[in-house]
Amino acid sequence: MNNALLIVLYKSKGIELSNSTMFNKRPLFFKIKTARISIGRNTLINSNNYNYHINMHSKCKLMADRYGAVIQIGDNCRIHGTCIHAYKSVVIGNNCLIAANTQIIDGKGHALSFPDVENRINTTDYGNPIVIEDNVWIGANCIILGGTKIGYGTIISAGSVVKGEIPPMSIYGGNPAVLVKSYI
């Protein structure tokens, strides 16, 4: 990782990195002044396709581009080629594994605008927070939508689209994601 980038990130107001946060190749950061991004101890943000077990289509991207938006990533996580976009908040616990090409976004981009659909292009969504609890494993190519809470220890199968309350200690998969197996 380029030392100059680390110095810029450490000096950026609203970006909090542990001194043991690791980057494999340069991720993309986009944060407005009133937003906050924090990454915990021993967490790896991997944007390097070389030596990763599947094809990674893009670098990691962390976007907190709305007033007061928060991205908070816990300790001992491994995040590969993932986009995390917070309109309000995306909170990821400790010991989480997030595989490549995953999209985690708490907003829809635009308001639904029914019945005024002609004006949809001029609207924005306000977001609905996402919480991913400790020890969660999210497989490759998943989409985690706003208003989702994924419980402790849960696995989300590759290619799943997730929205809503996902209980702890379970496996969910599909589009939309449904219960595959519970370990409680």
From TrEMBL:
Upper taxonomic classification of the species? Bacteria, Pseudomonadati, Bacteroidota, Flavobacteriia, Flavobacteriales
Q: What is the recorded name of this protein?
A: Acetyltransferase
* InterPro entries associated with the record: Hexapep, Hexapeptide_acetyltransf, Trimer_LpxA-like_sf
Q: Which keywords does the record carry? A: Transferase
Q: Write out the similarity annotation.
A: Belongs to the transferase hexapeptide repeat family.
Q: Does the keyword Transferase apply?
A: yes
Q: Species name for this entry? A: Flavobacterium enshiense DK69
Any one GO molecular function term: O-acyltransferase activity
On whether Transferase is a keyword of this UniProt record, the answer is yes
